[in-house]
Design brief:
This protein is of the alpha/beta class and about 170 residues long. About 45% of the residues lie in helices and about 10% in strands. The protein has one domain: Rossmann fold. A four-stranded parallel β-sheet has the order 2-1-3-4. Strand 3, helix 5 and strand 4 form a beta-alpha-beta unit. The chain is globular. Bound molecules: 4-nitrophenyl phosphate. 4-nitrophenyl phosphate binds next to loops.
Amino acid sequence: MRTTNRIKATRAGARPIRILFVCLGNICRSPTAEGVFARHVREAGLEESIVVDSAGIGDYHIGEPPDPRARAAAAQRGYDLSALRARQVDKKDFADFDYVLAMDQENLRALGRWCPPEHSHKVKLFTEFCSTGPCPVPDPYVGGARGFELVLDLVEDAAQGLLRHVRRQLDV
Ligand code: 4NP
């Protein structure tokens, strides 16, 4: 309780750190990353200091909820993705967000093509924050349930590293 109060006092009035997770369709990997990281942020009492969102490179699933397989796998670990809706990355995201975190190299290359040069330092692989170092979060869309478990394993690991990194930035 005291820690939470101190965090809020430290960050009072400061602009939150804004993090955007990006995959291809915004219905499997990046909404999973958004839901997992948002819970880490809530549990740390940092909702007022960190803003989380997700988007897709493609426009195929705009307005759709996360894939039922992604929702089911996440729910098994206590994450509720049901309120999320897919959207496409917008050019203004590069100005609006402090971190634009791609799930794989293909996403990273597409973001690199769209990103204005002055914001290119914001675009990274999410798994740069993994304990085992950067690797792709494999696309689970065509495949079985095991793919969604692997997504969650990688995302939970990277989310812990990202939270540690952001906490150092916030000095909390
Ligand atoms: P995501 O998975 O990029 O993790 O959301 C995919 C979802 C849909 C498609 C590809 C990947 N698709 O081709 O429709």
